[in-house]
């Protein structure tokens, strides 16, 4: 292995912050210097809605090609942006401990979802969040927005005039991103995961490497930052997406957790208008907390959840292609 570990990442402030934090841990474990390699993706440059340009997977492809071209030694993704299908020549090498997986509301005047006035303008670019908002508050004016965290928060700023078309009353943002950027003071409400499930893998990072045998030192460093429970729970959530044949931006929420000896998984598929939804919950008892047994349990409960969702008509609600 080179004396310097090259770590590829998107160039946004959030991506750089979360990648630098995890790269520092990898460098310390490997006793090596770190070079951060920013990569511009189509998702970063396009102003079109995520749904129209292929979903959040557009953030991953340029990073992956950079890794395959040996421009970096590993890449760091937000796991919720990573498509579930295998990518030729690459493999997932580590999943660090998950941050807060919840969505948050950042609103004017300390409002919550329940107290926002009728017709309030709420911004989000996520089809899942749009469906959830329409289900909870059909009276709201939902604005499809893009941009980084700072630009979204700026649209809730009191500096914008009341008649400014950019002005919003609230935005929905992931707690993990706000936390990594030190901006949790903007949160006016944390949305409970079991009432408001988030994207599979939300709050988690994923480290991808080229397929094949890793240098022993780098392999050891990646093992040191991997978190077994996070790897297992996010695997279960992502297996729901894979089983439904749904894209990263589909209106699907999933939450997995390990509590004592039980492994729980709940997933919900929403219609795009938010008027209908189907939920399935299952649990398993892994033989142990070894990686192999947790992965086996993840596959088991995800398979049962997917079968129940499809059997109850999930494919008729949203753009999922699986068949029961």
Blueprint (SSEs and pairs):
Blueprint: E1 4-10, H1 13-30, E2 33-39, H2 42-45, H3 61-68, E3 74-78, E4 90-94, E5 103-107, E6 121-124, H4 127-136, E7 141-144, H5 149-154, E8 170-174, H6 175-180, E9 189-190, E10 205-210, H7 216-225, H8 228-244, E11 252-259, E12 262-270, E13 277-284, H9 291-311, H10 314-317
Parallel strand pairs: 1-2, 1-3, 6-7, 6-8
Antiparallel strand pairs: 3-10, 4-10, 5-8, 5-9, 11-12, 12-13
Structure description:
The chain has 324 residues and is α/β, with parallel strands linked by helices. Helix content is 32%, strand content 23%. It has ten helices and 13 strands. Strands 2-1-3-10-4 form a five-stranded mixed sheet, sandwiched between helices. A five-stranded mixed sheet has the order 7-6-8-5-9. Strands 11-12-13 form a three-stranded antiparallel sheet. A hairpin with a 6-residue loop joins strand 12 and strand 13. The longest helix is centred in the last third of the chain and has 21 residues. It is globular. About 2% of the residues have low confidence.
- Contiguous low-pLDDT stretches (5 residues minimum) are 49-56
Order of helices and strands: EHEHHEEEEHEHEHEEHHEEEHH
Tell me the strand percentage band.
15-25%
Percent of residues in helices: 25-40%
Oligomer: single chain
Write down the overall geometry.
globular
N/C terminus separation = 47 Å
Structural class, by secondary structure, is alpha/beta
Radius of gyration: 20 Å
For the largest beta-sheet, the strand count, sense and barrel status come to: 5 strands, mixed
Adjacency order of strands in the biggest sheet: 2-1-3-10-4
State mean pLDDT (0 to 100 scale). 91
In total, how many beta strands? 13
- Helical stretch tally: 10
């Amino acid at each position: 292995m080179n004396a310097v570990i090259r770590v590829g990442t998107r160039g946004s402030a959030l991506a750089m912050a979360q990648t630098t934090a995890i790269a520092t841990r990898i460098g310390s474990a490997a006793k090596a210097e770190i070079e951060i390699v920013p990569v511009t993706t189509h998702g970063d440059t396009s102003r079109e809605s995520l749904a129209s340009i292929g979903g959040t997977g557009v953030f991953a492809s340029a990073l992956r090609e950079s890794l395959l071209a040996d421009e970096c030694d590993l890449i760091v993704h937000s796991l919720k942006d990573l498509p579930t299908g295998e990518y030729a020549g690459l493999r997932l090498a580590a999943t660090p401990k998950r941050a807060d997986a919840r969505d948050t509301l950042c609103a004017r005047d300390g409002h919550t979802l329940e107290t926002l006035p009728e017709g309030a303008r709420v911004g989000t670019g996520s089809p899942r969040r749009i469906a959830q908002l329409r289900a909870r508050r059909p009276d709201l004016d939902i604005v499809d927005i893009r941009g980084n965290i700072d630009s979204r928060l700026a649209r809730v700023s009191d500096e914008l005039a009341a008649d400014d078309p950019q002005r919003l009353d609230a935005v929905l943002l992931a707690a993990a991103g706000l936390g990594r950027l030190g901006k949790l003071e903007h949160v006016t409400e944390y949305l409970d995961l079991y009432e408001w499930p988030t994207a599979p893998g939300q709050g988690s990072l994923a480290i991808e490497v080229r397929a094949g045998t890793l240098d022993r030192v780098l392999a050891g460093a990646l093992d040191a930052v991997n978190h077994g429970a996070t790897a297992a729970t996010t695997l279960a959530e992502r297996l729901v997406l894979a089983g439904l044949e749904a894209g990263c931006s589909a209106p699907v929420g999933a939450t997995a957790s390990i509590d004592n000896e039980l492994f729980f998984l709940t997933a919900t598929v929403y219609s795009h208008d938010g008027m209908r939804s189907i939920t399935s919950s299952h649990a398993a008892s892994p033989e142990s907390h070894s990686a192999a047994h947790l992965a086996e349990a993840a596959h088991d409960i995800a398979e049962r959840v997917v079968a129940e969702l499809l059997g109850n008509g999930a494919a008729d609600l949203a753009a999922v292609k699986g068949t029961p």
